[in-house]
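User: Second chain of the day. Same drill as before.
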Amino acid sequence: MEKGRTVSNPDSSPQRHLIALGRWFERQKRVLPWRDAPAPYRVWVSEIMLQQTQVVTVVPYFEKFMASFPTVQALAAASEEDVMKHWAGLGYYSRARNLHRAANQIVAERGGEFPSDREGWESIPGVGPYTAGAILSIAYGKAEAILDGNVERVVSRFRAVTRAGGDSFYKQRLWRLAALGVREAARAGVSPSVFNQALMELGATVCTPRA
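Assistant: Same format as last time:
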């Protein structure tokens, strides 16, 4: 090797950990209906349903919802009453109202085309920083960070981040680390979709609150 020249080793840390995480996810990921065809509409609806709701509860609701409203145009054309009937029992009903209102906005103002950047998604009713990052990374393959309860737990434990500096500093640091992680993963050959879903999966199934 030429003196003074460094060569990137894909098996070196931290790339080794990122690649291992991606491989773990591909082997161990749960079979979920929204993962079959991660188009923006399906990812968006699933992420809204998953807010403060367990996966096992969401699955049948998602399948029924997709059967009745397979496109954003179909959702926009539906009555609010019909949408609420499909949501009955899932709770947090403002999510359904925001979803219906957002569908109408996307169809009326964007001709049914979804935003392709974070600013655009965060302008959609009911979509915050986490949901925007999830949609952009999973449906578009963009290196956008996510931070929900599961990811927060994984990142804070792995990087030994405490709340010593206060909640605001704690959250800001975790967002920075999550953003750094998804970019580093992409450079290591792990897609943003796989990396972010792997963090979520790890937090939900292995790195649980009491584990």
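Confidence is low (pLDDT under 50) at residues 1-8.

User: Great, on to the next one.
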